[in-house]
Write a structure and sequence with these properties.
The protein is α/β, with parallel strands linked by helices and about 220 residues long. About 25% of the residues lie in helices and about 30% in strands. It has seven helices and 14 strands.
């Protein structure tokens, strides 16, 4: 599997290129800022992009979707519960004093329990809500001695979790999502978050205070 993390924009949001090393097919995950640089990265890696995928649609994760669609001519897939956040991007941008992005059309919906094929790779689509109502995780189980991969959006970070004070955010829901959808994965699973460095499920189970028993007590 090919996976490249590209931090972009003032929020240093992680866009990802994820691809199949056997076929060269790949996806562009979370087009935020610096779309051209991310596309150039895919070209350098030899990845042929076939789809644009959103883990969720907060401004930093989706402001570049329209540009990416125009440049690549590819469909954009998102969880249906994120349509409000997508439509709210112009207001969010104005609130930060940023240029107002174009709101893109959604071409297909990511459905938890279904799968997403990328070349010979198959990702399981998991709902990891709480930070955003439709925050999804793309999980590829490990095989042949290779660890699994979980691209988690803003559900889980190295040492922390996503904020829950935005539209339909809920801290208890997020902790439950992490407990049931992420901490049940093998400890060696590689975690690719929406901000910050990669980590593993095992490391977060050992060191992340929000992944410990009684984490609800941290919510205040």
């Amino acid at each position: 599997m090919i996976i490249e993390r590209i931090p972009v924009g003032p929020f240093q949001m992680n866009s990802y290129i994820a691809g199949c090393s056997e076929t060269g097919d790949g996806i562009y995950i979370d087009p935020g800022a610096e779309v051209g640089r991310v596309i150039e990265t895919a070209e350098r890696l030899g990845v042929r992009l076939t789809k644009i995928v959103g883990t969720h649609a907060h401004l930093d994760h989706a402001e570049g979707v329209a540009e990416a669609k125009e440049k690549l001519g590819l469909p954009y897939w998102l969880h249906e519960a994120e349509l409000y956040n997508l439509q709210n991007m112009p207001a969010a941008a104005q609130g930060y004093g940023f240029a107002v992005p174009e709101v893109p059309e959604v071409d297909g919906y990511l459905v938890p329990g279904e799968s997403l094929a990328v070349g010979n790779l198959v990702f399981e689509i998991c709902l990891t809500d709480g930070h955003a109502p439709g925050n999804i995780t793309l999980y590829r189980p490990g095989s042949d001695g290779e660890a699994g991969h979980a691209i988690v959006g803003d559900a889980l970070f190295a040492g922390s979790i996503g904020r829950t004070d935005l539209y339909m955010g809920n801290a208890k829901t997020l902790l439950e999502s992490i407990r049931t959808q992420l901490l049940t994965l093998p400890p060696d699973t590689l975690v690719f978050p929406g901000h910050g460095p990669e980590t593993t499920i095992g490391h977060e189970m050992a060191a992340n205070p929000y992944c410990q028993p009684g984490a609800e007590n941290l919510l205040g």
